[in-house]
Specification:
Blueprint: E1 2-5, E2 9-11, E3 17-21, E4 35-37, E5 45-49, E6 55-61, E7 66-79, E8 86-90, E9 93-98, E10 115-125, E11 130-137, E12 143-156, E13 161-164, E14 172-175, E15 180-182, E16 187-189, E17 196-198, E18 203-205, E19 212-215, E20 220-223, E21 227-233, E22 243-247, E23 250-253, E24 258-259, E25 262-267, E26 270-276, E27 284-294, E28 301-306, E29 309-312, E30 317-321, E31 327-337, E32 342-349, E33 355-366, E34 372-375, E35 381-384, E36 389-391, E37 394-396, E38 403-406, E39 410-413, E40 421-427, H1 433-441, E41 445-446, E42 454-456, E43 459-463, E44 472-477, E45 483-498, E46 505-510, E47 513-519, E48 525-533, E49 539-546, E50 551-566, E51 571-574, E52 582-585, E53 591-592, E54 596-597, E55 601-604, E56 609-612, E57 617-620, E58 626-629, E59 633-636, E60 639-642
Parallel strand pairs: 1-6, 17-20, 36-39
Antiparallel strand pairs: 2-3, 3-12, 4-5, 5-12, 6-11, 7-10, 7-12, 8-9, 8-11, 13-14, 15-16, 17-18, 19-20, 21-33, 22-23, 22-26, 24-25, 25-33, 26-32, 27-31, 27-33, 28-29, 28-32, 30-31, 34-35, 36-37, 38-39, 40-50, 41-44, 42-43, 43-50, 44-49, 45-48, 45-50, 46-47, 46-49, 51-52, 53-54, 55-56, 57-58, ...
Length: about 650
């Protein structure tokens, strides 16, 4: 019995975790025995089991809490393989028996013996860390089984569970240390004195850590990837540099006013301020602090003023501490757009006897994008920090697929080669079978073909080696936005066996019209790029093979990229990208003369209509970045704020102070 210890772990596009083995482009470099390289298709190899070695054993250690696993394996069947069981054991339990009832051989490996390629898959309950997978031949007479691309995809528990019966937060069986399992709801909850669950630390906290933030949608502490230039004050040390105290409009340096570890005691007539040296445009400021209230007869109002904007801040939570030094503790987490070198002030409104203090203050900038050096809008990066590349307004460590390096520090996406291009389909770009299935089965229809594809030279091709006289792939697109052109790009790999006189061919069809004839090139990858005029809201693309006599012909496709070139904004029909190319305009009640959106609105490509700019904004670059404010609103950073805090619910106008 051959034994493998698997430690290879891969995270991929759909945020799944994949444990895999035997997925390298070439196995002959890794193993000295039991690796067969096909003679007819020399870029196909596999590890095989046979009469001499009928078992293959794999061990995985799955670190993530899970309730089941999906198992995918490419099988290469050679010889007399019909009606012979391939036993699948999971942790010594026989969970399945795979068997081919009928032969549909394709001579991909050796024309002296029948052979087929299939992808086996199954799903089975599993929750332990250790997983043992055994593949066994029950009858080895004249039968060789090749094994390739073993992939284990755990079905993960909800992040709050350590054991579960399903993926939802109410399907927990056990919880992380510090959390409690509610027997009525089967949810893991934090106790009242530690109300915040940290995803990173996997425990309950009295408040979120400085590197995390409170996510109201999930009621948890999560990492903030946009944090920049963090400054901490009054944690375990008490440095008053840069802090002032203001009373009766007179500012003085803040002196040592420590009271039981709290900076105070301040009266309601006193304000403390700090000059935060934020310098980047398009960045917001996040202010976090613990506010302590002493001797207050009424519920106080906590105010934070950043530059011109003063806001009554609602605390995340509060606690009442009783005893000789009783107080109320409020946790503050507040985000606001800011100017460069912002002045941040803390103050209170309450009864005259109220005393207050502060500690554990955190200031940081919120960048438009992680690792961005300079932003162009609140959500778009213009240049990245050293060691990162700019890709479609975000910073990445390496250029993604469908892009290439440009000017040393920029990744140019293929769609940037075409004006106003939108991607409507992009798929088949990796060998993760779960990913491959999600992209293919849900998007592409085909006739008599395996959705699992063929793994060839390290790439998984949709379709590929199969013995069908005709291969047909179709894709339908509906309700496309106004456009004038379609761009279709893909890689195609063709396989031919036989003594055909004329080359085998394929047709690329658009709405039943042939736009390209592709001639077969044996075992060669062809990069296809075709563009054609198109204006209809619906589109059908198809690839159809034509097999000549006395030949076996099949093909597979990968790296499919379909794009459209959009019309000018608010244009309903066009023959080019410019305003002058428009043939018919969209009627939009929020547009001027049907050609441009009114002030306070911006064109949304996805909805194909004029949508509101951010609140109080008269002109905007996008739905987050304001360029000019409406009357009575103040522009700070890249947002507009109503200084009075009174906004009309119907007109959304900022009302003056009463």
């Amino acid at each position: 019995m051959l034994f493998f210890l698997i430690s290879n772990l891969l995270a991929h596009t759909f945020a799944q975790i994949v444990y895999e083995e035997l997925s390298e482009p070439s196995l002959s470099e890794l193993f000295q025995t039991n690796v067969k390289q096909c003679s007819l298709q020399d870029k196909i190899d596999f590890y095989y089991i046979d009469q001499q070695q009928p078992n293959l054993n794999f061990q995985f250690k799955i670190n993530e809490p899970h309730f089941a696993v999906e198992i995918y394996v490419d099988f290469y069947l050679l010889g007399e393989y019909t009606e012979k069981n391939v036993n699948i054991y999971l942790d010594t339990i026989l969970i399945d028996q795979y068997q081919k009832q009928y032969k549909y051989p394709s001579p991909f490996c050796d024309d002296s013996v029948d052979s087929e390629i299939v992808t086996y898959s199954t799903s089975y309950s599993h929750f332990q860390q250790d997983l043992n997978l055994l593949i066994q031949l029950e009858n080895t007479t004249d039968f060789i089984l090749g094994v390739r691309n073993i992939q284990i995809v755990p079905k993960l528990c909800h992040e709050s569970c350590t054991q579960c019966v399903g993926p939802k937060e109410n399907q927990c069986r056990s919880c992380a240390i510090g959390t409690q399992l509610n027997r009525k709801t089967n949810q893991c909850v934090c106790p009242p004195d530690l109300p915040y669950f940290s995803i990173v630390q996997n425990q309950c906290l009295s408040k979120c850590d400085v590197s995390e933030y409170y996510d109201a949608s999930s009621n948890k502490c999560a990492l903030d990837k946009n944090i920049e230039q963090m400054q901490l004050f009054f944690w375990n040390t008490y440095d008053y540099t840069g802090w002032t105290i203001i009373e009766n409009e007179i500012a003085q340096e803040l002196q040592d006013k420590t009271y039981s570890g709290v900076i105070g005691l301040f009266s309601v007539d006193q304000t403390i301020s700090y000059q935060f040296n934020n310098t980047n445009l398009f960045n917001s400021i996040r202010v976090r602090a613990d506010i302590y209230i002493f001797q207050s007869l009424i519920s106080p109002e906590i105010y934070i003023q950043v530059d011109k904007i003063k806001t009554n801040v609602k605390p995340l939570s509060n606690q009442t501490i009783t005893g000789q030094k009783g107080y109320k503790l409020f946790h503050i987490d507040y985000i606001i757009d800011a100017n460069a070198n912002s002045n941040i002030k803390f103050s209170l409104k309450g009864d005259p006897n109220t005393k207050w203090g502060i500690n554990q203050v955190v200031f940081n900038e919120q960048n438009c994008s992680p690792q961005c050096q300079e932003c162009s809008t609140k959500s778009t990066c213009q240049s990245c920090k050293s060691g990162f590349l700019l890709y479609l307004g975000h910073c990445v460590e390496s250029c993604p697929k469908y892009s290439q390096i440009y000017n040393e520090n920029t990744c140019a996406d293929v769609k940037e080669n075409y004006p106003n291009a939108d991607v409507i389909m992009r798929a088949y770009d990796d060998n993760i079978i779960a990913n491959f299935l999600s992209k293919n089965v849900t998007t592409l229809a085909s006739v008599k073909q395996s959705y699992f594809g063929t793994f060839y030279d390290g790439v998984r091709y949709f379709g590929g080696l199969q013995r069908e006289p005709i291969q047909l792939y179709q894709k339908q697109f509906y309700s496309l936005p106004p456009h004038y052109q379609v761009i279709v790009q893909f890689n195609i790999l063709t396989f031919e066996l036989g003594n055909n006189v004329y080359p085998n061919t394929l047709e690329l069809n658009q709405d039943n019209n042939t736009v390209l004839i592709i001639r077969s090139q044996q075992n060669q990858v062809q990069q296809i790029s075709q563009q054609f005029a198109h204006q209809s809201n619906n589109l059908q693309l198809s690839l159809l093979s034509h097999q000549e006599d006395r030949s076996i012909f099949s093909f597979g496709i990968s790296k499919v990229n379909v794009m459209i070139s959009r019309c000018y904004p608010l244009c309903k029909s066009c023959f080019g990208p410019n305003e002058s190319d428009c043939k018919e305009w969209i009627y939009d009640q929020n547009s001027n003369d049907f050609k441009k959106c009114k002030n306070g609105f911006i064109f949304d490509v996805q909805q194909q209509k004029c949508v509101l700019c951010p609140l109080g904004c008269q002109k905007c670059s996008d739905q987050q970045t304001c360029n000019e404010c409406e009357a009575n609103f103040i522009k700070q950073g890249n947002s507009c704020y109503c200084q009075s805090g009174r906004i009309d619910d119907f007109t959304l106008e900022c009302l003056a102070y009463s």
